[in-house]
Design goal:
single chain, mainly alpha, 44% helix
Length: 64
């Protein structure tokens, strides 16, 4: 990240929840198995009541 100077200006976040390496490894594993489209579908989180079953499959917005 040192190549992107504007990140140095971002505030540091200090979580009250301690990091747990086992959980971090599991998250990394799950994310490593997902395609970019699946990650985007999860991040967007559309209103599922407005989607058809085909939309959920097409836009990868449902569970894997």
């Amino acid at each position: 990240m040192s190549g992107l100077p504007y990140f140095q200006d971002w505030p540091r976040i200090v979580s009250a929840i301690p990091r747990r390496p086992v959980i971090e490894e599991r998250v990394d594993s799950i994310l490593g198995q997902m395609t970019l489209e699946e990650k985007l579908g999860q991040m967007i989180q559309p209103e599922l009541g407005q989607l058809t079953a085909e939309d959920v499959t097409t836009f990868k917005s449902g569970p894997r």
